[in-house]
Amino acid sequence: MGILERKIRQKENMRTNILAVALQLVKEEGWQSLSIRKIADAIEYSVPVIYDHFENKEAILFELSMDGFRLLDRLLEKDKRKYAEPEERLRAHAETYWNFAFKNPEYYQLMYGLGMPCSSPGKAKPEFNSFRDHIGEAIEGIVKEKKNSEEETCFKIHALWSVLHGLISIVMMRCSDIDDSQMNKKVMDESVDAFIKNL
Amino acid sequence: MGILERKIRQKENMRTNILAVALQLVKEEGWQSLSIRKIADAIEYSVPVIYDHFENKEAILFELSMDGFRLLDRLLEKDKRKYAEPEERLRAHAETYWNFAFKNPEYYQLMYGLGMPCSSPGKAKPEFNSFRDHIGEAIEGIVKEKKNSEEETCFKIHALWSVLHGLISIVMMRCSDIDDSQMNKKVMDESVDAFIKNL
DNA sequence: AAGATTTACCTAACGATGTTAGCAAAGGTA
DNA sequence: TACCTTTGCTAACATCGTTAGGTAAATCTT
């Protein structure tokens, strides 16, 4: 009997609908004004049904952050297929990371806890290191003939990730008075250049 | 009559007391659990008196973040007096920034909106650029014989700030699985080295 | 088809939050 | 003493996340 399957399908639909609606609300009004009641309103159900599908609000945010990591991962995989040469690939990864952040600021903020009650970080997720793994691979490709130790490579990975994340955070949080996005992009490009030169 | 002055003094005392108590609570339980009622409880007054001294909760957070910037600024000024040689001074500034962040994580999180409802950033504060100004001066000192344009120097400032802030953010938010603080410190030192070498 | 049972869903509430209106008491002024 | 300003409080409002408990519909059992 397909009746059970239909129910499962409906349940899944509800779940994805909740996530979709939550993301939509966030895009419109930001994380700070997202509430369970608004989600319930948007899906046209009462509040408690949301708790049939998610343990609590944090679980919803967690799931959305996972979506963010998955999306980023897909983009990085595309780079991998497109660019075989390690240096070229590394530059592409950096650019992809940058573009991802500013095309999906909601995701980026959630993924790295920028300007919101921490929620997602803290729990170790494999997806968390997706970017690290990708640039790590590219860096190893560039550096493999040189006699760098594994530890040194690990340092390099962290260093590059840090510049990118730091730059993005500062711009996204408006910590700097430099608001010219072209200029900020240039700072990133030069930082990546300097980084590669220093490998 | 000193009676008016006493009242002013009392009012100021109350104000600073509120801030001190708020900071204390944050150090004990983190930003997320700070509430007006807890502050009122700690200062042994009822809730509305707090609103006689601060417009709202955000104003309290804002003032505390200013304290953070002022404290950081004082430390950087100390470096300036201690180290005349630009490169040495720049290294000291980086180290000071790093140490400040991990000795006062509450301040750092508030100042740059890490893991909390954004609150402070967004409003342009002169104190915000204190660190930028300090490392800017040192970098100009190092680079002044070379024919770098002002724009290039500005880029360099942003690049260095970004590595530091990125590294600190990643560690503080536990985005990385590398939790060894000595190791993280090494990554910073090497990044600063590479940065200076690349000036 | 009728009864039993599980499921789906809602109303209403609890406790905590930031914020404010309005009142009472204390203190200074005339 | 009468008045007024300051100072502080109680109590409430709206919103939040979360949950207990009930109802009616959908499903399963006989």
From TrEMBL, chains A, B:
Gene3D superfamilies the record matches: Tetracycline Repressor, domain 2
Keywords recorded for this protein, A-Z: DNA-binding, Transcription, Transcription regulation
Keyword flag Ribosomal protein: no
PANTHER family per record: ACREF/ENVCD OPERON REPRESSOR-RELATED, HTH TETR-TYPE DOMAIN-CONTAINING PROTEIN
Protein known as: TetR family transcriptional regulator
Coiled-coil stretches: none
DNA-binding region: 35-54
Lineage of source species: Bacteria, Pseudomonadati, Bacteroidota, Cytophagia, Cytophagales
Domain HTH tetR-type: 12-72
UniProt organism field: Dyadobacter beijingensis
